[in-house]
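Hi everyone, sorry if this is the wrong subforum. Our group has a chain we'd like a structural model of before ordering constructs, and none of us has done structure prediction before. Sequence below.
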Amino acid sequence: MAREQPSLPTTRREREPPSTPAELLAARIPPRLEVHRSTIYFVRTKRGQRAGPSDPAQRTGPTRQGPVTLEAGAPLDADYVRLARFRYALRRFLHFSEAEARAAGISPNQYQLMLFVRAFDEPPTIADLAERLQIEHQSTVGLVDRSVEAGLVVRQRDRVDARRVRVALTRRGAALLAKLVAAHSPEFHRLSEALSRTPPS
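Answer:
Right subforum, don't worry. Here is the predicted structure as tokens:
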């Protein structure tokens, strides 16, 4: 008569279905527990591959930031502060400028177009304005078309090369631009002061 083998004690995982997220994960992919900086991670590893604390990309649990070792040429805290202050001051100025242009009945792009036209020694070409505005040539053509319809600028043929088109301000455009530039002066002064207070690197 064959002897009955004693039954081995069952584990908790055999007695009860997985209930916690960790147990559900363990039921699908056998994890290896790793304790690092008082935090438990479930680490998925390939067969024959060992993952340790130096492999953060393989961790599926939370991470805790520790001391950062900066490499040569890496930005310092002052670099982040300086850039953040510059971006904040610039965004405030741009927000003010866009609001002033819309209040005057034109778009912010039309205001910038007129400003660049006025800043040239002679009426600029479409290519000149596209470079200053940092937009595509075709987009500049559309902007000039809308500004011509609004009576802000006019197209002129180049005196030397008739194939070249230049853009000039109308009287209405020049008068409106003068009011907008005067309104911008105090805000531009505040922007300059904010930039001068930015700590050097």
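For your construct planning: DSSP finds seven helices and four strands in the chain. The domain at 77-196 is CATH 1.10.10.10 (Arc Repressor Mutant, subunit A).
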